[in-house]
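Long-time lurker. I teach an intro course on protein structure, and each term I like to show students one example going from raw sequence to a predicted 3D structure in token notation. This year I'd like something fresh instead of my usual example. Would anyone be willing to generate the tokens for the chain below so I can use it in lecture? Attribution to the forum is fine with me.
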Amino acid sequence: MFDDIELGAIFLTLRLATTTTVILLLLGTPLAWWLARTRSVFKGPVSAIVALPLVLPPTVLGFYFLIGLGPQGPIGSVTQWLGLGTMTFNFSGLVAGSVIYSMPFVVQPLQNAFEAMGSEPLETAATLRASPLDTFVSVVLPMARPGYLTATVMGFAHTVGEFGVVLMIGGNIPDRTRVVSVQIYDHVEAIEYAQAHVLAGGMLAFSFVVLLVLYTLQPTGRKR
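-- Reply from a regular --
Happy to contribute to a lecture. Here you go:
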């Protein structure tokens, strides 16, 4: 059904989505916890920055990533000085862009889950002399499990569906930066609608199954 080029795009997309989701869960957990608990004046600006990809066109975000990660950009200059080259037009650049682009889909569900539990469980754990780490692992994480489910599923699915950001940062290099969404675009440009239908139909089915699983499992998580 799929040729080697399409299989390469599928595997690269899954690799990108998995890597991005893991990084976002690691980075998003402390950020979401801080946003849920802080009363700092910086909460508003930080929340706005996290949510910016929700309203910013992907091509705009991709353009500024391309400039920033490029040879003349601030990040690109540093990576070149360190002998690492630039992050544009390779997998590391796709990961960097994907982390920023999918961040609200991970941070916001986690923040909502942390806020929903309130302070009473934390106060109870404190009276039992539980350490902050023990409290977070034994109390917070189990209670926030539905939020983690939503964050994981939405972060992964959103990364799979990226187009504008990855195209701007990574271009269209087979087995290096060409993900499924870009492959579909290539088929359409070449008027290969049959091949585009197969990939697009697969993406449609994947998106439906992801949402079905999410909405099916979430009520159970809330009851717990």
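Some talking points for your students: The domain at 4-223 is CATH 1.10.3720.10 (MetI-like fold). The chain has a mean pLDDT of 89.
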